[in-house]
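[stage:ingest] chain + small molecule (flavin mononucleotide)
[stage:ingest] validated
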Amino acid sequence: MEKNKLNILIVFYSMTGNVAKLAKAVAEGAMSVKDTEVRIRQVEELIPKEKWNDIMKKVKEELKDIPIASMGDLEWADGIAFGTPTRYGNMTAQMKEYIDETGGLWQKGALENKVAGIFTSTSTQHGGQETTIITSMVPLFHLGMIVVGIPYSEQRLFAFDSISGGSPYGASSISGPKADRSPTSNELEIAKTLGRRIAEVSRKISGK
Ligand SMILES: Cc1cc2nc3c(=O)[nH]c(=O)nc-3n(C[C@H](O)[C@H](O)[C@H](O)COP(=O)(O)O)c2cc1C
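[stage:predict] done
[stage:export] tokens:
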């Protein structure tokens, strides 16, 4: 392994593609930090194939080359960005299942002092982005992770002349009632900022 190389994991679930687009932006932000290696992974689907609708089938096809996240990916990483769509103001069952697999890592303290940040997508502006991000932080504290958000030095958080996701708690997008409003450039830039911040803080904490 290259000395001083920083390892950043972007792990996400996405059913209709919006969180996947944010994941790529978060990855871009992390990669902009010198000597950083980024892994993008998706968590396992729990919805049986026979229940997938056409949009879901299309998105699954688009994402098929992204490997399924393992526990080893978490151990490998110095910093981790978790991306999940909002489900009734919380993370998805798919992401929760992945986090619930970390019992063994928790016992060894393997994730202690790793840096983490969260990103999400909702269909509506006030549909629970902040609750999803904040409640997603709770298990990460149990795991001993150092959770970061996005400070207001990211001026795009002040956007008031257009509808935009993004908050001090993390990156986000508003996808609309049909989930077909792709993340805007403001939302993608904020996602990049989250990725960059996770990498920069990981660099300091890990001492790499
Ligand atoms: C079961 C279910 C619950 C949802 N709950 C919320 C919610 O609480 N608030 C909201 O605004 N959107 C909610 N949504 C919409 C998704 O969070 C939204 O479409 C998101 O952009 C999907 O991300 P994706 O395209 O990455 O799958 C829900 C969708 C489903 C299927």
